[in-house]
Specification:
Layout lengths: L4 E10 L2 E11 L4 E5 L6 H8 L7 E6 L2 E2 L6 H4 L1 E4 L11 H11 L4 H14 L15 H13 L5 E5 L7 H16 L3 E5 L3 H7 L2 E6 L2 E6 L1 H7 L4 E8 L2 H9 L4 E7 L2 E6 L2 H14 L3 E8 L3 H9 L6
Length: 312
């Protein structure tokens, strides 16, 4: 299947400021793709062009095979945009909000009623569907915002920092909803200032800085690119120090050291090496009672590539 979203060599300037400088990426059906970058990196401008709110100076965007510009209509029908700022009517109930936006999308009758019920269930608002939105918590308002973007079954859902300012329980509910959507085949473009969200949700991530993509790939691919390693910690009884040479002799082991009842082993990919490490420790007479694997996170990648924290 062709990608749901294709962006090719996007450029956009505001006066002398180059906000987007040659961004290229694509998002497949069922994929959650993360755009990460510090403030001012060009994420919002990129999303505005993808949603048809802003024209690119150069480059091309296609959504579901259709070209996207500010004047196109068909491509926009394939997008569900959930902006960072809430786009709901507080004096209407959740059901009334959804019905209003559904009618704007040309939905009506029993089809709209059935879809309303589905969306309310997905975002966890069925029990509060007939309460006014102004009485909702911040997290419930965010979930309603997502429901509006989902209503017309878009092929691409754009989520721009959907968990800003919500409590941990609501945040988890939002993330579970996003996971379910991607699992159902929807393409999701996701921006966030929370690195743990990107690690949990995103199949691939693009790190944007100064209007360009400085790195792109899966979590593991990005870790490998900057030369970070996994750490395996073994605890146990026996001659721990004597097991170190046997473990260090393994081809995939970068380094092994002993400290008290613990052995720390630095490797490229812990999952592939762990059985051999355990076998070497056991063969050297160590009874392993505990194993801990510490993987580098995206925060380390981000800091290495941009020199800044994600929220800077």
């Amino acid at each position: 299947m062709p990608p749901v979203l294709q962006c090719r060599n996007l450029h956009r300037s505001f006066g002398d400021t180059r906000a987007v400088d040659g961004i290229t990426f694509e998002v497949a059906e069922g994929e959650t793709y993360g755009l990460l970058g510090p403030n001012g990196a060009g994420k919002t401008t990129t999303i505005s062009m993808i949603a048809g709110l802003l024209d690119a100076d150069e480059g091309d965007i296609t959504v579901a095979g259709r070209p996207m510009t500010t004047s196109t209509i068909e491509a926009k029908r394939s997008i569900g945009l959930v902006p960072q700022d809430l786009a709901i009517y507080p004096d209407l109930t959740a059901r009334e909000n959804l019905r209003f936006f559904g009618r704007l999308q040309g939905m009506k009758g029993t089809d709209l009623d059935a879809r309303l019920a589905e969306v309310l269930d997905v975002v966890g608002l069925t029990d509060r569907a007939d309460d006014r939105a102004e009485d909702y918590s911040g997290g419930m308002k965010r979930r309603l915002n997502i429901g509006i973007g989902l209503l017309h079954k878009p092929e691409l859902l754009i989520l721009d920092e959907p968990t800003v300012g919500v409590d941990p329980q609501s945040r988890n509910a939002i993330l579970e909803s996003v996971e379910a959507l991607a699992g159902g085949g929807m393409a999701v473009l996701y921006t966030t200032h929370y690195m743990e969200e990107a690690e949990r949700l995103c199949d691939r991530v693009a790190i944007v800085d100064n209007g360009t993509i400085v790195a792109e790939g899966t979590h593991r691919e990005l870790i490998t690119r900057i030369g970070q390693h996994d750490l395996i910690r073994l605890t146990g009884t026996g001659d721990v120090a004597a097991a170190v040479p046997a473990i260090a002799a393994l081809a995939a082991v970068e380094r092994a050291v002993a400290a008290d009842d613990r052995i720390e082993v630095t490797v490229g990919q812990a999952g592939a090496v762990l059985p051999d490490v355990l076998a070497a420790a056991s063969g050297a007479g160590v009874h392993v009672s505990g194993v801990e694997v510490v993987e580098p996170d995206l925060e380390a990648v981000f800091l290495r590539l941009t020199g800044r924290a994600l929220r800077d």
